[in-house]
Records
---
Amino acid sequence: MNDMRPLERIVDTDTVKISARNVQVHYGETHAIKDVDVDLEANTVTAFIGPSGCGKSSFLRCLNRMNDTIDICRVQGDILLDGEDIYDKRVDPVQLRAKVGMVFQKPNPFPKSIYDNIAYGPRIHGLARNKSELDEIVEKSLRRGAIWDEVKDRLDAPGTGLSGGQQQRLCIARAVATEPEVLLMDEPCSALDPIATAQVEELIDELRQNFSVVIVTHSMQQAARVSQKTAFFHLGHLVEHGETGEIFTNPRDPRTESYITGRIG
Amino acid sequence: MTDASANTPATPRPGKHAGSLLEQNARTLRRNAAERRFRAYGLSAIVIGVTALVVLLASILSQGLPAFQQTFITLEVHLDEAKLDKNGNRDIEEIKKVSTFGYAPLIKTALSTRAGELGISSEDLGVSDKEIAAMISKEAAAELRRFVIANPDRIGETVEFEFLATGRIDGYYKGRVTMESAEKDSNISPGQLQFADALKEGGALSTHFNWGFFTMADGSENRPEAAGIGVAMLGSLYMMIIVLVLALPIGVAASIYLEEFAPKNWFTDLIEVNISNLAAVPSIVFGILGLAIFINYAGLPQSAPIVGGLVLTLMTLPTIIIATRASLKSVPPSIRDAALGVGASRMQSVFHHVLPLAMPGILTGTIIGLAQALGETAPLMLIGMVAFVREFPAAPPEGFFDPASALPVQVYNWTTRADPAFVERASGAIIVLLAFLLCMNFLAIILRRRFERRW
Ligand SMILES: Nc1ncnc2c1ncn2[C@@H]1O[C@H](COP(=O)(O)OP(=O)(O)OP(=O)(O)O)[C@@H](O)[C@H]1O
Ligand SMILES: [Mg+2]
């Protein structure tokens, strides 16, 4: 943790985008998330850190109701997006997921062409009126995903034929293409080289202008570099949540300190 | 490590894996011996399987191939006006009144004339006129009558016909009947065979490819030479159409619902168990069900392809459902997550992403199900498709309700008949059935390749 550079953090706004209260997640008998209360602000990058298996992904998946697809998963508590309960009976998760996009931990491109991978979301949401608009969206998204230069000559090639890191960036581009308000990224850089990582981090910073970003990462440096807020999870509990600089320089909880200094994890 | 020690071979280090690599140790030897034994078992299993297949195919082919050949006698028949149209006014109704008995003498005369031209003397061979006439299939008179009714204006002319020889004469040229066997046979005499030989020498009798086998309906007990698989093929085709049209959409829709939408609870578990059980139910049970429900209760006609098709649909459904569900299951869940993650609905994720990926498996399952249905015999016998059907069913959809036969039932039917000529026909029908099955499997492979090659 030598090159950690806790920068001067300016949090632009205090508007709460997502507010979670008393969230519990059960997988059958396993109690994966226990009593989590957290506020995620708009125009902010929040980093979720914590040891493997502590429930970062589980909590992230609550935020766009991806847990609905797991039969044994039960979610309790309140999660409000812009003040509306996303687990309300009247909420259609499909509409929610268009607002809250997600990049998964494992790259999962569609077995279709690179172009169709990106164009799929805009198509089903009717974001483009014609082919040239769609082309524009595809190019812009691929540029934001830091992969345009590598794939611009083979947009018709299958997305599954890309390397692991390229697939991950393709998935980021795909998530960005639908213009979500909140972007949930589950370890988006775990398969990327330092250059692509830097590009993705740049993208995250850019996205912050318009969206809220939540990023799960195992890299303390990355958390320190890109996020304004950090949340530390441990064994299903949200141990500490606050300004990134605070957490890294002056953690309140001894568990946080042990983790970021590399003693547990 | 110094340079000197690098050149000397290292002394074996004591440890778990001590010993030279150039020498196999006892454990490795045992392992390799086990592997060789297993390969030998596998190889012998394949050899046994292939041998069985080769023997089976060889026996079917050797028995069945002659069915595609038939012996014909070419004659010039004078369509005698005095016999066929006494009043000479070409009234079709009056012509129809003349039965096949009226036509038989014409053929008899034509044959005697032809024999005379070729210088064959029936006295020398010791065959009576009646025996000579009996060399031509009884079907010939019916064929002639059909021709005359279709072309009444040709009455009075002399027309060349190729008539079927009887099954015994045909068998003589296929090695089924010999001079010795003819001595003991009440249906044929050595003299007739010699007469046939003489006709052949004169060019009036020949054995060649028999299209009639594919186009004719079943023949009666004593006319094997006139029996074909036309009605059976048509019946099977109609049933396959019904099965495909019903079982594919129902099966795929049911599987998609069960796999992608249905909540997992005791009720869907029950359905799942029942579908598996249904796949294991003996096919004859489906026949009984078809008889009870479709014929007795719903009042559908017996022996009709519609009933056969419905029964086979019931039988094929579990196969298709099981295959479709397996291929839906094999689509990685991450693809569904990806689609849902960009805001696709469940149906969109299924139809845009999951179904195309599952397509090869679904098609293979469907074609295998169809192939099973094509070869199914027992349930069709129960619903009356074993009946003797001479009339071709009409074109669909009315034809679905006309009586018809089916290929496997026709095979069964022929094997129960006394005349050995029917054994040959049955084997021929089996070859046709196998050819269809091969085509279908081939189609399955092609479709699978085409869908898979896309990505
Ligand atoms: N689909 C599932 N079914 C059952 N249990 C699950 C499932 N997904 C996660 N869990 C359990 O929930 C707990 C938290 O898992 P989660 O994936 O959220 O961890 P994580 O913090 O994302 O770990 P990592 O950093 O390794 O990705 C784990 O104990 C895990 O076993
Ligand atoms: Mg995770």
---
Amino acid sequence: MASHEAVTLGLHETESMWAGGRSPFAVGSKKLGMWLFIVSDAITFSALLIAYSFVRVASPSWPRPFESASIANATVMTLILLTSSITVVMAVRQAKLGNRSAVAGWLAATMLGGILFDVLHLREWVGLIEEGVRLFKNPWGTPQFGAAFFTLTGLHMTHVTVGVVYLGVIAIGTKRGKYTAEDVEVSGLYWHFVDLVWMFIFPLVYLMSAKFA
Amino acid sequence: MHATVEHPAEHVEPKRIFLIVWGFLLALTGVEVLLAYQSLEIKVMLVLLMTLSIVKASLIIAYFMHLRYERRSLALVLMPAMVFVIAMLFVVFPDSLRLLWMSTQ
Amino acid sequence: MEAHAVATHAHAAPTGFIRKYIFSLDHKVIGKQYYFLALFSVVVGILLSVLMRWHLVWPDARIPLLDKLSPTGAPGGIMTPEYYLSLLTMHGTLMVFFVLTTAPQSGFGNFLLPIQIGAEDMAFPRLNMLSFWVTFAGLVVLLSSFFVGDGPPLSGWTAYTPLSAVGSVAGPGEGTGQTLWVISIALFCVGSLLGALNFITTTLDLRTRGLTLMRLPLTCWAWFITAVLALLSFAVLFAAGVLLLLDRVGGTSFFVPAGLVVSDQRIAHSGGSPLLWQHLFWFFGHPEVYIAILPGMGITSHVLSTFSRKPIFGYRAMVYAMMAIGFLGFMVWGHHMFVSGMSPYVGFAFSVFTMAIGVPSAIKTFNWLGTLWGGKLRLNTAMLFAIGFVSLFVSGGLSGLFLAQPPVDTNLHATYFVVGHFHLVMGVAAIFGMFAGTFFWFPKMFGRMMNETLGKIHFWITFVGVYCIFMPMHFLGLEGNIRRYSRFTDVNFLVPLIPLHKFMTIAAFVTAGAQFIFLFNLFWSMFKGEKATENPWEATSLEWTVPSPPPFDNFAGRHPVVYRGPYEFSVPGAPKDYVMQDAPEPVAAH
Ligand code: HEM
Ligand SMILES: [Cu+2]
């Protein structure tokens, strides 16, 4: 049948994904849209990380102030974020299986992870601010340190917070039957991306500034 | 209005694979933290950490974000564009090295 | 994130005025909204340029009403050098962002892309509406800088740091005005990114049956590639904008160098690099110039083929050339920075890649000429503007090859030569693309025809006029006439050039005046023009298979099927000299 249609359409390919009338990737438009958003946002984060590296490379010295307690804290945050990716995977799985309330549960667990991450991170921020770190100065020299730190982690934290709200909307909507498995999956994509960005911020901002004993 | 998913009865991947990936990610994170405390030259450290991070990111994209299970064309449309643009951004670095060189002269 | 908000498209047309014309989800209304936003911006932008040209040659003349707009910027109607720069900045920003990036892509693209691919709307109508209103907010924020603080910023459309980063010590407008500028641009980035992902998804997912990629009209290809460029490059500008904003309001110094003294004041925060801003800005800035021109290229190809009654010459070559331009466009940004102190080794690479862009550009040009060659030309207004586009693109593009060479550019960079180059190749060429598009699709957009006589008068004055304004700039540049200065009449070595400047200013007045003919034609035809038929130009793409203007969901529930490419003109054996894309009967033996 496919080949018959291809002939009447004047196509040479017997059955092409690209011949119109369907998604060439066999995914929903929302998913493609989210992927494109992620590509774009990944470039924004890359540009920021590269700006940070540019400034750092150009500076004769760069502080390495993070005590092992800070590194431990950031490592725990990483574990939380990675784990929240697993819970969101579970949510997507349950959505595909059609268990609406299980979806809401797993999403709630994910949100909890996000909130915990934010809390730990803010605690860290407050600690640094109390030590005198600002956007334009810090006790250890090179003023760009604070600028880069707060800019990168701040934008990431904003993404986490937006993600928590987004997942909340999806969780409630799914429970009420408003959203489909596709919506859950799309929100999951966003969440994984936030996780992914952290995989670069963590080593570049924290580990590369760890203080040796 | 949208193109919709064509086969509603999607196959659901076994839980196990995600847990394995998760385990890998945790382990790699551990390796990174250990690395941070080795007295390596900063360039070497940077390369090692970034390599590990790229591996982690790839795992997340391939498994958690499901790209491995989509049609190959999706990955081929998205990934080269992103990687190309990010790679081009690296062209700024000769200038920051030169600034460093100038300020230490 | 917004993606989830779009569950279904309302299948019934909205009835209330607000849902229909203000917060509309219909791509056709949103396209027109963008078009009129750009039209408004271009009127303001032209006005500013006329004021600048006026001041340049008669620096002591009192310009009426200008002191009302800004008593401090133009005391007694004579603008200060700083205010000149403010007008320059606003002119550039309005034109590049809110005109050239807005009308050809978001305006025409929104209106036509879904119809040309046989869809009833964009993939994400709600996101589409959001993009427009975010862009609109960006415009309002930008224009508000005229009225608050001490006026608009003076750092140019490129907002070079540290001038743009250090705040009000750097001059009037560098306080509130520059902050508003950054916010406006950040909003614009968001609007463009949302628009871009919508365009890409729509083109990939919503093509109707039989519409393979290689059967897309070249307009759709152009909008698609432009959207890809926008998605990838505005992301970087957004990052740069965030950093600049933090430098301004947060006290960081990403872009402020050590030991900087401005207006006798030592700037406290230090240690950053102005070069970093230039890199990030131009990383976006060069793709941006192609974002401005590619849709015009698409429109030109479409119109040339239609009115030459010939298939476009080298369809595939056109597509691949656009892809090559887009790809190389990310590898050449450094040609704007040859004199910035950038590493000369990198500069060499940038120079080579820049010249390489000449190849796909030339391919396109020759294909346009090949399309015209031997065609049964219908020289109506749309066609004239399309041919004008080719002419301007060539005239302006050739000077780019001179500028691509660092030793030459070192002398020309800060002169009018560059101004001549980019106005011809980007500014006016893209605007000619818009004019061509307007005359071509007006019947579809408004259901009436524009007046051809007025159109041709407008074309000829504009065509001759822009050459008179911008061609001499190359000679000025070669004579060393520096750019971004408000007063040349007192500079000895420039005095002999003042008559040429006067000629350009008069040409600018005449050309700007001639635009009233267009505005009159546009609005008069909207209400009084001759009623348009479904396919007045005997064109082939899908938008000409639906009524003018098209119904709410474009195809009235029908799903068109496409059997052939978009440029089947003068096919041997066909009953008419064109074959519609959705015509099923086999026409010629293969
Ligand atoms: C073969 C094609 C082209 C080449 C080789 C070329 C080369 C260049 C070079 C080397 C410069 C830097 C001059 C300087 O600042 O000293 C420049 C500036 C510029 N070009 Fe082109 N160009 C080409 C086509 C285009 C096109 C197609 C556009 C727009 C549609 C464009 C828009 C601009 C703009 C806006 C500037 C100046 C921006 C500013 O300084 O404010 N160019 N071009
Ligand atoms: Cu350029």
---
Amino acid sequence: MGVDNFPPMLVLRRRSRPGEWLIQGFLLLCALLSILTTLGIVVVLGRESWLFFGDEAVTLSEFLTSTTWQPAIGHFGVWPLLNATLMTTTIAMLVAIPLGLGVAIYLSEYAAPHVHDFLKPTLEVLAGIPTVVYGYFALTFMTPLLQNLFGRETVEIYNTASAGLVMGIMILPLIASLSEDALRAVPRSLREAAYALGATPLETSTQVVLPAALSGISAAIILGISRAIGETMIVSIAAGAGPSFTLNPFEAAETMTGHIARISGGDLSYNTIDYNSIFALGMTLFIFTFSLNLISRIIVERFREVYE
Amino acid sequence: MLIENPLMEARQVTLYYGASEALRDVTLQAAPHQITALIGPSGCGKSTMLRCFNRMNDLIPHVRLSGQILYRTHDLYHPDIDPVEVRRKIGMVFQKPNPFPKSIYENVAWGARLNGYRGNMDELVERCLRQAALWDEVQDQLRKSALALSGGQQQRLCIARTIATEPEVILMDEPCSALDPIATLRIEDLMRELKERYTIIIVTHNMQQAARVSDYTAMMMLTDDRAAGTIIEFGETQRLFTTPSDRRTEDYITGRFG
Ligand SMILES: Nc1ncnc2c1ncn2[C@@H]1O[C@H](COP(=O)(O)OP(=O)(O)OP(=O)(O)O)[C@@H](O)[C@H]1O
Ligand SMILES: [Mg+2]
């Protein structure tokens, strides 16, 4: 009988399980590695920015308030670059958030299974297109389109609107795909509850499913924004070169990332002020994305609807 | 016919999930202001049958139904019928409590608002919670999340939420299966009160419960080829439980089945 197959003595003493320890150690190592990398980046950015702000040509207050960035004549105000970044990002998100959410809701709540199985991979292919392709798409398709719509006099060849719009198209699949995963994770029983009360599919998806998926969706949006802020290729190609402070989306302007790419592409010698300025810009970018993450966490904590 | 003027009626309903048959030739009537119980072994199609009455099966892809589901004079599966409107008249309470992850108040108010309720919402919420025998326990915490309630409280909240949309029929799929005996008895009391105003069809695995609360009982079972579920006996609960006419019904209700 079964009982006889066990050892005769009852042993409850704690046993050592080396396999468990090994795995746990390995997983901890993985976690530490990513933390260490982040720390390393912060240290390097911090050190070089320190050198930058230590230079007598630079003051922190000028960096934070001035709207001129002219390293050649010693002006280091971050606003022209920051402003261009904010403009392209805002335009991109104005495209990517509503369309991305729309696609996500359509895919998870409305699409028939075979439509879904065709659309989702297509969308993911869109996410895999290299950004340099998007860049030239902006320059050779979107800009002429804008020029036809608003006139050649108003729309410059290089402009933030074109770069922002195309960037939005690029980010759309990311937001759509991640949001759809979040929507799908909402239990069926909640949808059934809504339908059983006589809710329409629209009321169910926007008033029950969407709020329940909020934390996943805001994570998707934050990731999208971070992606837009950090995007380099499209803005380098289509937004313009040369820092200029303008609120007109049809004029050329250079973003922080575009500037970093252009400056570091030239022959820049180590430890010059131009070289160090790149790190100060990098630090600014980092602070931006970092605070975004923080803010989103707070928002999600406050508004999310937890389901079991 | 057993019932003169049924409020709801299934006529020769056959239903397929894709290629597999789940219901075969089911005919069933529900009398107004009465409780009709569906009993039978697991997997015989009770939930499937219940979900035909408010077109909940529409949400499952590849479901095909033939036959008729009648509500008053309407054939609910007629192409001109809007399932959203159907569900506003025929509400449903599920086996597992599924409150929205919103406040207690909002759980009740949401459906009523959808259905165009224009009166005083506070009043409605209080009235429905009272009817569902939940008011005394939650009146001080209406703004708290419904998920903080116990399972039995959540189920009563789901009933309150259903009542708030003022349906005419309430379908209940094993509403007490996740509850303890005391919560179960409360919900049974509640059903007896609710039947004054609503018509109730309930699925239950609990024979005593069917005997205690229902007026009519339908016994479902798989067909002889075990392919689909069908109704083998339907009648007044009293009669069906004391003198079942089908041998299988007798075996099932006395626990000798399977
Ligand atoms: N969504 C579905 N897709 C395919 N088949 C299904 C689906 N739902 C139920 N079925 C099948 O239909 C048959 C009847 O299921 P149903 O849930 O109606 O039984 P039930 O009598 O309610 O059982 P229980 O008492 O266990 O709840 C089962 O064979 C089941 O496998
Ligand atoms: Mg069932």
---
Amino acid sequence: MARYSDDVSPYAGGTELLLAMKMHFADYQHLVDLKRIPELRTIIRRDDIVSLGALATHATIADDAIISGAVPALGALCSSIANARVRTSGTIGGNLCFAEPRADPPVLLAALDAQLVLKSARGEHHISASQFIIGALETLRAPDELLLRIEIPVTACNIRYERVVFGHRTIAGAAAAIPKDPANKPRIWVGCIGTHPTSLPTTERYISANPASLDDGLTHAIATDIGTLDIVSDEDASADYRRHLAETVTRRAITAAADKKGTP
Amino acid sequence: MTSSTHNISMTLNGEKTNALVEAHTLLIDFLRDAQNLRGVKRSCDMQICGACTVLVGDHPVSSCTMLAVDADGADVVTIEGLGDRDNLDPVQEAFLEFGALQCGFCTPGMILATKALLFSNPTPSRAEIEHHLSGNICRCTGYQKIIEAVESLAQT
Ligand SMILES: Cc1cc2nc3c(=O)[nH]c(=O)nc-3n(C[C@H](O)[C@H](O)[C@H](O)COP(=O)(O)OP(=O)(O)OC[C@H]3O[C@@H](n4cnc5c(N)ncnc54)[C@H](O)[C@@H]3O)c2cc1C
Ligand code: FES
Ligand code: FES
């Protein structure tokens, strides 16, 4: 990769990259096909960490027994992303590295407190999924770095991702990870409404302080957090509509996670 | 764009096929132009409509957004690889029986998407059929007849 400097791009399923190249949004003389490295596809569990290879496709993740046992919310999401053809080819790593503002997995992986492991000739480098995406199509990945894997901690949490899709993409998505032990901090993230996923700190504090109540106070906390965000208007949805949907999917994710007491 | 050329070999509709392709050649162009398999249709060119669906190792892909070099070593099936006029594939038979096509433009993709579904799940429910085929667009039939045709296959 270093040899061709800025005329080279990593290439996985091509479901974003080839589209961008066909539309002349991107132009590279060299593509490095990561599919030729089979180790990047493996999904394994070591103690309380699920290590998900960056080249695992949505279809593989949806059907994987380790994922459905340890992080069923991720399997459920991957089985519903896009269509069967994109799920066959598209990878989780490509989804994260492309950083499309309407992508779902970055929101869920941030709520799961996943760690991304990147590598270049300079060495390995860990970044939290919650910090990786910094803007629309912008990440902290250096051009010569590859995403190797995603490490997901398996914790005693009830986890739920809820979204609303319009046309072919999500217009609001929210993830809730609510610990079974109320002494631990919940993680609530929203995405697909601005340039990148964001956490909802007021809502998290409210749930910690009021673990059993899904009341008006929760609705108010969610509205306070979402009220501070920059929300985009585009041909799919206005900012006002997205704000309303974001509040609704956040409440749904929290309610569903809170309802799942006792399930993994 | 400059481009390198690559020797690829694949099993195409059951036959070993070797070819020299440019690195940037899309699978759909290789199939239609070099292999004359015109049952592969191009419409949206952006992985939405499913008209270009082909099977690669029993899985459905959009040939409009896959490089031909990525099919190197793979088992590729287009609609021409299923049945012929006198000996239809059961899925083709069901589409005919249920009137699941009108203009026919979406049909090769629909049939191959159905094959892929039945490979991975031989007894899909109606909801599973709808979920799986939701990525294939038909402008004529209103989908009812297609879903009924696939349901008839699931019951056998
Ligand atoms: C019709 C359609 C509907 C979709 N719907 C949804 C949806 O509902 N929700 C959703 O979240 N997504 C959706 N997507 C996006 C889909 O999830 C992504 O296209 C897919 O996951 C990208 O993976 P890929 O392997 O094809 O990436 P590629 O296109 O191969 O690569 C994308 C980018 O990431 C870089 N890259 C890839 N892998 C690595 C790596 N390991 N290390 C470093 N850089 C890398 C590439 O250089 C490129 O810049 C949809 C896409 C389509 C076409
Ligand atoms: S032409 Fe490939 S999906 Fe529409
Ligand atoms: S039969 Fe005409 S598009 Fe489906």
